[in-house]
C-alpha cells in the first residue's frame, strides 16, 4: 500500500511538472516547485500516517489505600477508638448492603419484606453507634454473631429457593428459614429498642443531676 501510494504520488508530481513546463510555458524552477508540491500532496493523500493501535481496555488506576484520619487514635469510649468505630460502622453497613442486595432478589414477597426490614433496623443500629459509641460494647454480640449468621442464612435461602427441584426436606427447610427470619427481625428490633432505652436512661440521669444541682444552689 505504501509503495503504490509512492508511485502514484510520483506520477502526479511528474505530470504537474510537465504540465507547468510545457503546457503553461513556466520556468524550470516554477515547474519543479509545482511538481514537488503535488508529489508531497500525493504522499499525504495516498499513504496513511501510522496510528497507535487502540487499547482494548482502559487501565484502571491503582486503588488508593484509605489514609488514616488524624483522630483515629482518639478514644470515643472505653476500649474503642474513633478509627475502630468508623471501621465497625463501615464494615457493618457494607455487610447489611450485601444482605439487602440478596433480599431484593427473593421472589417470595413476605420473605423479601422481612429481609429488608432486618436490613433497615440493622442500619439504624449502626447509626446509633455513631451517635452513642458506648452502645458498641452493649451490642457486641449483634456485631459478631447475629449479622454474620443472618447473611449466611439469607444467602443459602436464596440459593436453595432457586433450585430447579426441591425435595420435601428442602421445602421444610425453607419454611423453617422463613419463620426464623421473622425471629431475627424481632431480635434486631429488640436490640435497637434496648439501645434507645439506654439513651433514655442516660438522658433521664443527666436531667435529674441537673435538677438536683439547681435545687442545691438555690437557683
Secondary structure layout:
Blueprint: H1 2-23, H2 28-46, E1 75-77, E2 80-81, H3 82-103, H4 109-131, H5 135-138, H6 140-161, H7 168-217
Helix pairs in contact: 1-2, 3-4, 3-6, 4-7, 6-7
What keywords describe this structure?
two-stranded antiparallel ribbon; elongated; 2 strands; 219 residues; 2% strand; mainly alpha
Explain this structure to me?
With 219 residues, this protein is mostly helical. It has two domains: 2-46; 75-217, no CATH class. Helices cover 74% and strands 2% of the residues. It contains seven helices and two strands; from the N terminus they run ααββααααα. It has a two-stranded antiparallel ribbon. The longest helix is centred in the last third of the chain and has 50 residues, at 168-217. The termini are far apart.
Brief write-up:
By secondary structure, the protein is an all-alpha fold. It has 2 domains: 2-46; 75-217, no CATH class. It has helices spanning 2-23, 28-46, 82-103, 109-131, 135-138, 140-161, 168-217, and strands at 75-77, 80-81.
Largest sheet geometry: 2 strands, antiparallel
Class from secondary-structure proportions: mainly alpha
The figure for the number of domains is: 2
| Number of extended strands | 2
As a whole number of angstroms, the C-alpha radius of gyration is 38 Å
- Low-confidence stretches at least 5 residues in length (pLDDT < 50)? none
**Widest sheet: strand ordering:** 1-2
What percent strand?
Answer: under 5%
Termini separation comes to 101 Å
Mean pLDDT: 79
Helix and strand run = HHEEHHHHH
Number of helices: 7
So what's the overall shape? elongated
Task: Report helical residue fraction.
Answer: over 70%
Amino acid at each position: 500500500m505504501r509503495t503504490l501510494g509512492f508511485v502514484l504520488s510520483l506520477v502526479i508530481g511528474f505530470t504537474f511538472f510537465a504540465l507547468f513546463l510545457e503546457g503553461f510555458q513556466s520556468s524550470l524552477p516554477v515547474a519543479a516547485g509545482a511538481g514537488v508540491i503535488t508529489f508531497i500532496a500525493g504522499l499525504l493523500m495516498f499513504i496513511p500516517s501510522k496510528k497507535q493501535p487502540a487499547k482494548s481496555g482502559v487501565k484502571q488506576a491503582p486503588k488508593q489505600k484509605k489514609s488514616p484520619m488524624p483522630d483515629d487514635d482518639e478514644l470515643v469510649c472505653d476500649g474503642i477508638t474513633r478509627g475502630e468505630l468508623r471501621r465497625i460502622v463501615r464494615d457493618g453497613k457494607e455487610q447489611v448492603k450485601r444482605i439487602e442486595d440478596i433480599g431484593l432478589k427473593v421472589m417470595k414477597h413476605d420473605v423479601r419484606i422481612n429481609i429488608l426490614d432486618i436490613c433497615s433496623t440493622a442500619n439504624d443500629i449502626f447509626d446509633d453507634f455513631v451517635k452513642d459509641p458506648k452502645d458498641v460494647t452493649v451490642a457486641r454480640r449483634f456485631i459478631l454473631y447475629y449479622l454474620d449468621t443472618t447473611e449466611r442464612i439469607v444467602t443459602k435461602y436464596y440459593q436453595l429457593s432457586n433450585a430447579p427441584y426441591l425435595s420435601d426436606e428442602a421445602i421444610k427447610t425453607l419454611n423453617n428459614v422463613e419463620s426464623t427470619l421473622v425471629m431475627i427481625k424481632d431480635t434486631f428490633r429488640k436490640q435497637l429498642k434496648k439501645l434507645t432505652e439506654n439513651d433514655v436512661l442516660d438522658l433521664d440521669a443527666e436531667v435529674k443531676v441537673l435538677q438536683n444541682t439547681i435545687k442545691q444552689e438555690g437557683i
